[in-house]
Amino acid sequence: MLSSPEANAALDDAARRLVAGATEIASALTYAVRKALNIDSADASILGGLREAFYAETRESFFEALSDLVGLLEEDPEAPEALSSTARGLLDKSLGPTALRMFDAESPLDPTLGRETDIQRVVEARFWLWLTLEGRGKGGQTLFERLALAAPEPKGSKTKGKGRAAKP
Fold first, then answer.
1. Which pLDDT score, from 0 to 100, does residue 113 have?
2. Nearest to residue 94, comparing CAs of 151, 133, 132?
3. Is the pLDDT of residue 26 over 80?
4. Is residue 133 packed enough to be buried (19+ CB in 10 Å), middle (13-18) or exposed (0-12)?
C-alpha cells in the first residue's frame, strides 16, 4: 500500500491498464497464430496454452514494471508520464518481443514446409501482429489506449513524381 490514497488510486488504475494491455497482446498473438496456421474457430482451443505461456513468460517483467511504477507514484502520485513510460518500457522490452518470438516459434516461416499461400499467410499474420504492437490499425489503437500510450504519428505519403524531371 502506498502512502497516499491518490497514489493508491493511480496505481490501481495503472495496474488495470497494464493487465488490459497484456491481455490485448495475448489476444493479438493467438489471433495471429490462428491466422498464420489457418486454424478454424472449432480448433482454436489449442491456442489457450499459447496464451498461458505468454503470461508465464512475461510475468516477471510485468511485476518488475509494477514495482517501478510504485516507486514513481510514491514520489509523485500525479506523475503525468508514470504510466506511459512504464507501459512503453514493458511493451518494448518484454511484451512485444515475447509475442513476436512466440509467434515465430509457433508459425515457422519455412518454404520447405508448405505452399506459397501458406508462407504468405504467415508473413501477413506476423506483419499484422507487428503493426498491432506498433500501435497501428484497430488492434494497435486499442492496445495503445489500454496502455495510455500516445498514438503513433501517421506515416507520411510517398513523394509523387520522384525521379521525374522538374518542370521549369
1. 64
2. 133
3. yes
4. buried
Dihedral sign computed on CA atoms, order 124, 103, 29, 81: negative
164 pLDDT more than 90: no
Sorting pLDDT into bands at 50, 70 and 90, what band is 135?
very high
- pLDDT at position 73 is 83
Residue bearing cell 504510466: 83
Residue closest to 100 by CA, chosen among 136, 58, 60, 59: 58
Query: CA–CA separation, 137 vs 122, rounded Å?
Result: 18
Residue with cell 496502455: 147
- Positions of E strands within 7-160: none
Residue partners of 60: CB distance under 8 A and separation at least 6? none
Max Cα distance, the chain (Å): 71
Residues for the chain: how many in total?
Answer: 168
